Amino acid sequence: MRHNLRARAFAALFIAFMPFSAGAQLLAKPTAELTRFQIEAISLRDVTFLFELSVKNPYPVALTFSGLSLDFSVEGAKVFSTSSQGGFSVAARATKANVFTVTLAYDAIIKVVKDYASKDWLNTVVDGKLVIPLPKTPGLPADIGFSYKLEKKIPAIKPSIAIVGFTVTPPSAADISAAALKAGKKVDADKARSAFSDLLSGKAPSAQVIDPAELDVPLQVRYTIEIKNDAKGPLSFNSLDYELFINGESLVLGKSSDVKRDGQRILVTITN
User: How far apart are CA 56 and CA 130, in angstroms?
Assistant: First the structure.
């Protein structure tokens, strides 16, 4: 009889403990941590920030929620607000990290920051907010929120750009001969080269040897991009990606590592 009572008591205790344990698990809260915040890239037009958000889901069901909302302020002035795109989903009892970037345009900063040109570095504050809806369970709130405050300093950049020393090297006689042969034309290569040189210098050719449009000949374009910073932020880079447009059409696209500093100027030489 005594053993029977003990067995019943143990069974009652076990039954009572089961809902308590399950309830404790359901009352656990998810965690959300910004595990990475850094400057991913800086160009003459904008700065790109990289964020990594890691969320731990303790529940036996998946969590789906909107992305992180972000407010950007520079030198105490609010610049703009945005949200990470695409939403976020974390599987049951799992941890998932989501990496995304946000680009902040310098034009937008210049409009709101006083005395921008006198500054070298700009204090940038990012206020983030994340709201995660929770499973509908007694004892749990409808959602849980997380707030973040992040800070970075970015250089003040207000570039002025000019193209100097623009030259076009005419094709060689050998280039013209090869192009004429390919096009099935017979030309005097030396006279044709002289005609190309006249055209590129803005002169009328002394003799119409051939229509230049009929030959596919290489033209070497060389020019220098002069960059100055009208603000006081430091400009320093080892290479420059560039694209030259003529009348809205892309003419030259590439990358140059021929970068020199001359006082407050940076000179990037392009050869194509």
Answer: 13
Looking at the structure, do residues 126 and 205 belong to the same domain, yes or no?
no
Do 177 and 218 meet the contact criterion of CB atoms below 8 Å apart? no
Are 255 and 239 spatial neighbours (Cβ–Cβ below 8 Å)? Answer: yes
Helices 189-200, 173-183: inter-axial angle, 10-degree rounding: 110
Least confident piece of the model among 73-77, 80-84, 201-205, 259-263 = 201-205
CA dist., res. 175 & res. 182, Å (int): 11
Distance CA 103, CA 46 (A): 7
Report yes or no on 10 lying in a domain.
no
Give 61-117 pLDDT, tens digit per residue: 999 988 889 999 999 999 999 987 667 899 999 999 999 999 999 999 999 999 999
The gap from C-alpha 129 to its chain's centroid, in whole angstroms, comes to 22
Q: Which domain holds residue 236?
A: 160-271
216 and 264 within one domain = yes
Among the three residues 104, 125, 157, which one is the final residue of a domain in this structure?
157
How many Cα atoms sit within 13 Å of 66 on the Cβ side? 13
Q: Do residues 170 and 59 share a domain? A: no
From residue 80, alpha-carbon distances to 69, 72, 83, 191 in Å are: 11, 6, 11, 61
Confirm whether 24 is domain-assigned. Answer: no
